[in-house]
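Let's do one together. I've listed all components of the complex below, 755 residues spread over two lines.
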Amino acid sequence: MLTTIKRHTLSVLVENSAGVLSQVSRLFSRKGYNIESLAVGTTDDPEVSRITIEVMCGEQQIGQIINQLRKQFSVYSVRLLPPEQSIRRELVLIKVKAESREVRNEVIQIANIFRASIIDVSTRSLTLAIIGQESKDDALEKLLSEFGILELVRTGMVALERGEATIRNNSSNKVRDEFDLGKNIL
Amino acid sequence: MLMKGSQIVMECLLEQGVDTVFGYPGGTILNIYDEFELHGYNQKIRHYLTAHEQGASHAADGYARSTGKVGVCFATSGPGATNLVTGIATAYYDSSPVVCITVNVADSLMGKDTFQEVDITGITMPITKCNFLVKDVNELADVIREAFAIARSGRPGPVLIDITKNVTAAEAEYEYLPVSEHPNHGRLATLLRRSNREIKIPEPDQGDIDKLLELIAQSQRPMVLVGGGVIRSKGAVPEFRRFIETLDAPVGSTIMGGGACPGNHPLFTGMVGMHGSHASNMATAECDLLIAIGCRFSDRVATDPPSFAKNAKIVHIDIDRAEIDKNVKTYHHIIGDARRVLELLNAGLEQHDYTAWKAQVFARKELPLKKDDILHAHEILETISDLTNGDAIIATDVGQHQMWSCQYYHFSRPGQLLTSGGFGTMGFGLGAAMGAKVGNPDKVVVHCTGDGCFRMNCHELATVEHYDIPVITVIFDNRTLGMVRQWQNLIYDKRFSQTTLDRGPDFVKLAEAYGLKGFRAKNQAEFADAFKQALEAGCGCVIDCAIDIDAMVHPMVSGGTPVTDFLLH
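Okay, and this is what the predicted structure of the assembly comes out as:
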């Protein structure tokens, strides 16, 4: 069987409690998949967290992982975000070596072109923040690398579907009901 | 009422109707154990002190499988908790409802590599349906209620509750709440609300039911494959029997489905898979519709998934949606509790007659059984069956004796066969047999084991003796790890690496050392005699049966090859 490995973006609503993150992430490590990116935070409901996970794997494997996720009691909703109909963003902080005024000016110019903001300045460094997707972030990173990147950190991708679709109203009702039936505690 | 966490644990067990607990005390769980004496809970809950925590976990599992109730076991922190792990995994793979209660070190000592501290919720995450760490005494009652609800509902499974020692000593308000009220309160109510679920028992989809009825109407050669889901679903077996008799189709079984269809039923073809019968395995390849109920097409059943039931439309009925299309690709599925799905199917199913198709399936013969002057496995099982009117509960360990037990003992009801089908845990049987006997005191409980398996947990004979739990252990003693030797015989060119058990102990003397009775049997007459004495003895007995070192389980299909390619037939 030929499987095409590609990037999948999963959005998962979970109970905001200890252990849930490892419960979710172990389903990926169990099969030996490395999570490319992971972002977690609470939602408008403080008792519910949203996890955005990006992973490289085949179509069938991601289907299996989604099924295993859905049957967890601490998982409320799972949505595989369609790449064309989703917006994905991550925040990158880059600390660049900038020991002279010329270098600082040049870095600031590049930051302006990329609409990155300068969030910290010292006599020997500049720290930039940029929000974007891989292509933009990578281009900036490449340009800055010639000045010397001291540190770089990413938040991990967060993503939402375009338009009015939400994680709660957009999954097939039949499949959701089928999973809920198995989780019913009556 | 204000009470200590330890007492809340006991009260919550009583709410659930628990009267039996298997366990082993230790430093951190002392407060809970103290309740048995301090507040007299030993009058309401019988605690069985096992020789090892693993035995307690298997006993709770065997109790659950044989009674349909939730089994409960206690263990202390650290090694006490990790000793439960194999038992929890065993229960998880076979969807057995067990609640394990462990007590961890005090909150203030957690994460400091404290004496006997271990992250048991982390360790058991992959092998529990759900687990909890309780650090607030005010949540304790709610968590226990949720744990029991989760363990027994849907696809049942083990749940672990780890409580910090300080919580067992702290006080909180406790109010008795009947089980029927639990879903309307606290965490359970939140769980239901947050998942957008209504508080009502869900129904299978009628459209899906109708579609299967249509597929049945079009089918010329239907077959039913029954798994443990029908055993676990309460009240499913009568509906299942009505279904197969109305459908009039051959019925194959997975190991976990043993007892759903009586072993001597005219529609029963036997087990399917690696040690499946000739009739069963060939029928899966020839049927045009395979209705699989409550099974998961494991690698021991669908040995080669792409070729499994290759001429059939596979319809999968299960309560766990994640099982659909996991191991084999299905044509149609119905999600729901087996009993309810079968009820709805029966309501719409007309009487069928597949005489020609059945004749084709049942024309296939199995190898004739050996009869000579040495003792054979089938003779042991036939004798047990004859002398117990086929009514005994059989708990097995894992290997050849397990397959023989499934092939030659005719199970006729759910909970009659207790075996580690999914996880394949050697050493499961004795603990499970104890649990079954405690839960079913009026049934004969026979523990079928091999000499390898029995060595693993035979220390539980001490528990058998102390609590006077009269289980009969029958050792299929071939002085080898028989199943592994069978593979070495057939696949590894007779290189018997590390499988020969030419060593002690003398099992009869061992039984006597534990204060039990021991017997030896070298032929069927001796075995029948020993078994009769064991039945009359009224105490735990061990019967050491000498069988041939090279006896094999027939038929056999190698892993990874189609179920129709018999290596041994």
